[in-house]
Design brief:
The chain has 17 helices and no strands. By secondary structure, it is an all-alpha fold. The protein has one domain.
């Protein structure tokens, strides 16, 4: 039986709204923030519920952080909580991306944003590296000989998943399933246990310029992206690139890179880049349809299995299955961090920004990430203006 919540529905909604406008760093950082704030600090969510949500979020297709927010909302407040928490988390970044889309339409490009992204991207790398390290310690174990020996099989899953993710540059759901089954079988055999400007100004930015046929194409395409792409924002970006640039020819290569930059410098889920792409193709209606089509499948894939996942998730064999999946999930996220780092760190100054970010987070544990992002943006503008 689920324990009574120690927080109100409005409190958890307000939390995800704040995270939606202040949570930088992509899925790795966002899921770590949720653990830090909801499990460790406020103790609203149990460690087991959080781990269940993380595992289910990885098992189901769609953006990882958004799915975890939906699951957490579901834990105590069911469908209403899942719906409102998911909306509260996605809405702030959606609004920001639409505003940036308006500016993009006005000025025909974001040269100043590239300067900002130079600094922000490097700082984000530092943030997600630290977040990944903390997730490893919480979900698998401390990085020392005794802890590694104790959870040696989980560390093998972690290393294997990270290596494959770096090599293929995408997450593979089959790896998670195989790791989960392997760990469940291993533990079962060992323990003998049974079997996640105004109105005119707006019009001049293409705010309401669209072709109904484009909306249909956007709905179908992004619905497919939301329903069949597993893992973090890193997983969906190659899929979007091949279709949006190469097949549909909706955006040029430069415009697509700008879309990715917009997603990285705004808080909230990285997958919100779909709204920026939708805006460039069909204005505000395109942005809205793209977001709905992408996030609706992940909402359904989280809410529908959640009651059954909670009901049977406490059984030892299921718990061992989840532990194996979690180790694989963290490994994939670590692999994604490596891929992002290789793409974002292009020279010595960028590397220095990333290293300084890591050192600041280690030294000042209460330092807020948005402060680091702001300072990095200023540094990027200064460096590119020299």
């Amino acid at each position: 039986m689920q324990e009574a919540p120690t927080y109100t529905l409005s409190q958890i909604i307000n939390y995800f709204f704040r995270l939606g406008y202040s949570g930088f760093g992509g899925p790795v950082a966002l899921v770590n923030y949720m653990h830090r704030d909801l499990v460790e600090k406020n103790k609203w969510i149990s460690e087991e519920d959080y781990r269940d949500g993380l595992a289910l979020a990885q098992l189901a297709p769609g953006p990882l952080a958004a799915q975890l927010s939906i699951y957490i909302g579901f834990i105590h407040y069911r469908i209403l909580g899942a719906t409102l928490c998911g909306l509260a988390f996605v809405l702030p970044s959606f609004v920001m991306v639409v505003i940036i889309g308006i500016a993009y339409k006005m000025y025909g490009g974001l040269s100043w944003m590239q300067a900002i992204f130079y600094g922000v991207g490097s700082a984000v790398v530092g943030i997600i590296i630290m977040s990944c390290y903390r997730l490893i310690e919480k979900s698998i174990g401390k990085i020392n000989p005794a802890a590694i020996q104790k959870s040696w099989m989980l560390w093998i899953f972690f290393i294997l998943s990270a290596t494959i993710t770096v090599y293929t540059q995408k997450e593979n759901i089959l790896i998670c399933v195989v790791c989960g089954i392997a760990y469940a079988l291993y533990k079962s055999s060992k323990e003998k246990v049974g079997v996640v400007r105004n109105g005119l100004f707006i019009l001049n930015t293409g705010f309401w310029q669209f072709d109904p046929k484009d909306l249909e194409k956007i709905a179908l395409f992004f619905g497919k992206a939301g329903a069949f792409v597993f893992g973090s924002g890193l997983a969906i970006i190659p899929f979007l690139h091949s279709e949006v640039v190469n097949e549909m020819h909706w955006l040029s290569e430069a415009e697509f890179l700008d879309a990715v930059a917009v997603a990285m410098i705004t808080p909230g889920p990285v997958v919100i880049t779909v709204s920026f792409i939708g805006y460039l193709v069909a204005g505000f209606p395109g942005a809205t349809v793209a977001a709905l089509a992408t996030f609706l499948p992940c909402y359904l894939f989280t809410v529908i299995p959640a009651p059954y996942f909670k009901k049977y998730g406490r059984r030892p064999v299921i718990k061992n299955f989840v532990d194996g999946i979690t180790a694989s999930v963290i490994g994939m996220l670590a692999g994604a961090v490596a891929v992002i780092s290789l793409r974002a760190i292009t020279d010595i100054p960028a590397l220095i920004i990333a290293v300084i970010t890591i050192l600041l987070l280690i030294r000042y544990k209460k330092l807020k990430e948005p402060v680091i992002i702001l300072l990095a943006a200023i540094v990027g503008l200064i460096l590119k203006s020299i």
